[in-house]
């Protein structure tokens, strides 16, 4: 055996799991087709939002609480500042499902969130141009994470614990042979006991039965310069705001130029058929669309973006992630398709993945909701 566990894909989830497993003393070998910390997939766009008031479902509350603790642990072990807390705003129509789900999160989980009506919201957060029917839910424990830097930090710690990391090495095939699994790359074939697949939009290359079951989305980010030279992240919390069609979010950029990042959520129109179809350039109509949002909602920003970019992420129809052993092979664990909300909870997910690979099971009670079987049966 070359290792006990082979990890295919060292992005968000793969890097975090490599950190945890190697720390447990497991012999790890990790493969990444690009460089560590690349921006070609879910970690693209420099930063990601961290929030605890979660309209996507109450089952995520414990994951987010544990993730907060583990993000701080990763900072301590790596010496890197990764998580910045500057509050978070959820903005939308007071009667919409979007806001109702956020309120439900506050009511059913022990959180310190609170609700602002239009008048108080305008007073505290004048950067946002609100409509009369809109209100704001404030999450005091929200902020942003330096995405690529976090992946590099986790991978570097894994190396310190003797994990073997092989970057720029696409995996060609994963195949079970008797009591071991063969991982074939262009130059060599490796033998391991168990495999973790965390390849995001490339998942169906290794699990063909996922074909047509998952959706790849091309997502656009744009960075805008504030008009106020004294603008800072301390007086402008991260936010997510409802649109008539979809939503968008905003947070400080990962740079010293004070740029504000605005990102668009996935819609039916953003779907692409294959990772090779990702078009990195942002066209004029796309720029005009996001500039119109800034003009209507964020008058503190200049309407023309200073820079733009596109990356991709993998989604399930029910927006729940895939986390579990393949039905046909209990030696292959699949962690993928976090539907645009995986980065913030990545440390807790890697803990669950490490438990499953190390012990064969986890104490996380909602794991069945994330099972690959539900997608493969659909």
Any key phrases for this structure?
alpha+beta, 378 residues, FAD/NAD(P)-binding domain, globular, D-Amino Acid Oxidase, Chain A, domain 2
Please describe what this structure looks like.
The structure is a single chain. By secondary structure, the protein is α+β, with helices and mostly antiparallel strands. The protein has 2 domains: 3-46 and 148-212 and 318-377, FAD/NAD(P)-binding domain; 86-144 and 214-315, D-Amino Acid Oxidase, Chain A, domain 2. The chain is 26% helix and 29% strand. The chain has 8 helices and 20 strands. Strands 5, 6, 7, 13, 14, 15, 16, 17 and 18 form a 9-stranded mixed β-sheet that branches. Strands 1, 2, 9, 10, 11, 12, 19 and 20 form an 8-stranded mixed β-sheet that branches. A 3-stranded antiparallel β-sheet has the order 3-8-4. β11 (180-185) and β12 (189-197) form a beta hairpin. α1 (12-23) packs across α7 and α2 (61-78) packs across α7 (346-359). The longest helix has 18 residues, at 61-78.
């Amino acid at each position: 055996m070359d290792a006990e566990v082979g990890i295919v894909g060292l992005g968000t989830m793969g890097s975090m799991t490599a950190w945890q497993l190697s720390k447990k003393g497991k012999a790890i070998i990790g493969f990444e087709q690009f460089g560590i910390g690349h921006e070609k997939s879910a970690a693209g766009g420099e930063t990601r939002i961290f929030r605890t008031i979660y309209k996507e479902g109450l089952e995520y509350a414990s994951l987010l609480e544990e993730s907060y603790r583990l993000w701080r642990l990763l900072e301590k072990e790596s010496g890197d500042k990764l998580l910045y807390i500057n509050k978070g705003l959820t903005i939308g129509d007071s009667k919409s499902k979007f806001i109702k789900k956020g309120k439900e999160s506050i009511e059913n989980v022990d959180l310190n969130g609170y609700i602002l009506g239009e008048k108080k919201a305008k007073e505290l957060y004048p950067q946002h141009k609100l409509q009369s029917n809109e209100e704001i839910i404030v999450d005091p424990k929200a902020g942003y994470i330096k995405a690529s830097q976090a992946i590099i930090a986790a991978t570097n710690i894994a190396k310190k614990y003797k994990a073997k990391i092989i970057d720029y090495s696409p995996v060609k095939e994963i195949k079970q042979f008797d009591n071991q699994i063969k991982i074939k790359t262009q130059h060599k074939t490796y033998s391991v006991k168990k495999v973790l697949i965390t390849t995001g939009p490339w998942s169906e290359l290794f699990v063909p039965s996922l074909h047509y079951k998952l959706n790849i989305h091309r997502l656009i980010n744009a960075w805008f310069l504030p008009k106020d030279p004294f603008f800072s992240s301390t007086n402008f919390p991260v936010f997510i705001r409802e649109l008539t069609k979809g939503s968008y979010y905003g947070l400080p950029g990962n740079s010293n130029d004070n740029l504000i990042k605005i990102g668009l959520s996935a819609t039916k129109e953003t779907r692409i058929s294959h990772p090779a179809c990702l078009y990195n350039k942002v066209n004029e109509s796309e720029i005009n669309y996001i500039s119109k949002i800034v003009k209507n909602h964020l008058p503190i920003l200049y309407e023309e973006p200073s820079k733009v970019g596109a990356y991709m992420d993998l989604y399930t129809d029910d927006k729940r992630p895939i986390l579990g052993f393949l039905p046909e092979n209990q030696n292959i664990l699949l962690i993928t398709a976090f539907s645009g909300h995986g980065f913030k909870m990545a440390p807790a997910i890697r803990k669950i993945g490490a438990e499953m690979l190390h012990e064969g099971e986890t104490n996380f009670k909602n794991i069945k909701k994330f099972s690959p079987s539900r997608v493969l049966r659909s």
